[in-house]
Design goal:
The protein is mainly α. It is 41% helix and 9% strand. The protein is built from four helices and two strands, in the order ααβαβα. It has a two-stranded parallel ribbon with strand order 1-2.
Length: 91
């Protein structure tokens, strides 16, 4: 399986001990990033998680791990959009 290694941050529910469908999971990401919600790309295979991320104003991609081309396309589109970098995105 091909790896995608261009992400600055990755949150894994088994590490944060919070389920992705819980409000606190989204709050943790937003607190850690300290950036505009438009600067977040959320990739998941579950419709409810995607809908919750969309409600928060995040960019989303619903895909399974084997859909590498779909994920790559979403990442490329995300990286070429006009991000709100002036609003404090930090690496």
């Amino acid at each position: 399986m091909e790896k995608i290694v261009i992400f600055d941050y990755v949150w894994l529910s088994f590490i944060t001990h919070v389920r992705k469908n819980e409000e606190i999971a989204f709050q943790i990401v937003e607190q850690d990033l300290q950036t505009s919600k438009n600067n977040i790309l959320f990739i998941d295979d579950t419709s409810i998680n995607i809908e919750n991320a969309k409600k928060r104003g995040w960019n989303t991609c619903q895909a399974f791990s084997f859909e590498v081309d779909k994920i790559k396309g979403a990442v490329e589109q995300f990286l070429t959009q006009d991000l709100d970098l002036k609003k404090g995105f930090r690496r």
